[in-house]
Design goal:
Elements (H helix, E strand, L loop, with lengths): L5 H31 L2 H13 L4 H11 L8 H9 L2 H15 L5 H26 L4 E5 L2 E4 L2 H26 L4 H26 L4 H22 L3 H8 L1
Antiparallel strand pairs: 1-2
Helix pairs in contact: 1-2, 1-3, 1-9, 2-5, 3-4, 5-6, 5-7, 7-8, 8-9
Length: 242
């Protein structure tokens, strides 16, 4: 494979920035669980860590390529690192979501999500281990493009579920009387769509210098807003109250 070009390097750097910020956000929320003993904070922290796994593979491949003459990970390795952890994030979020709003329907929702995840893993792992090119094409060490319509639909399903439940939760939070909760709800009302749009466009639209900057910045903003929506540090509270 040819050495990394300027766009590949920019793609890799932006991906690493997003991953590092997401790790900080996820572990910061998890740390609040150990302080407050609110299990939902644990679920939410795990959610953000794992839904951002879709960028782990290409970011790891970028690091490998830097020290390997532009040759990153194999396509199968990238796909496995990207997508094996992803359903864990969705499952964790649905546990938190149903704890917050629909406790009485939790078992039914949980079983439906488990069935969906089993279907995803069955198709995904079969295709990856038989011929990874049936899932995606490796454009460069830091970029892949989905090819299989079944996998595309599955991944769209993940994004759609996260978006609908996230917006629902945000709207319910905004309606609470607590002023801080209203701020959290408003932040989440932007965070979930921002992440969903950024993730969808990042995957669907060919990478150019313009699209790279726009979509990765959108993802980074969504990470900060997600953090504020569940933790709301004093500096962010003062900022948005103004």
């Amino acid at each position: 494979m040819a050495p990394l070009g300027p766009l590949d390097i920019a793609n890799g750097i932006f991906g690493m920035i997003f991953i590092v910020i997401s790790m900080i956000v996820g572990f910061s929320i998890i740390a609040k669980y150990f302080k407050n003993k609110n299990v939902n904070l644990l679920y939410v922290g795990i959610t953000w860590l794992f839904v951002c796994s879709a960028w782990w593979g290409v970011s790891t491949s970028f690091i490998v390529a830097l020290f390997n003459g532009g040759e990153g990970l194999t396509l199968a390795a990238i796909l496995l690192i990207n997508f094996v952890p992803l359903p864990i994030g969705l499952l964790s979020w649905m546990m938190a979501f149903t704890n917050f709003l629909y406790k009485e329907k939790q078992k039914v929702v949980f079983l439906c999500i488990i069935a969906y995840i089993i279907f995803f893993y069955s198709i995904f792992l079969f295709l990856v281990f038989t011929d990874a090119t049936q899932v995606a094409t490796k454009i460069s060490a830091v970029d892949t493009q989905s090819e299989n319509p079944i996998m595309v639909v599955c991944l769209l399903g993940f994004i759609f579920i996260l978006l609908i439940t996230g917006v629902t939760f945000a709207m319910k939070t905004i309606k609470l009387d607590d002023p801080d909760m209203k701020i959290k709800g408003k932040l989440l009302l932007v965070a979930f769509p921002a992440f969903s749009i950024g993730a969808l466009m990042d995957a669907a639209i060919p990478t150019t210098a313009v699209t790279l900057v726009i979509f990765r910045i959108l993802l980074i903003i969504s990470a900060f807003l997600f953090y504020g929506g569940f933790i709301l540090p004093d500096w962010m509270k003062k900022l948005f109250k103004k």
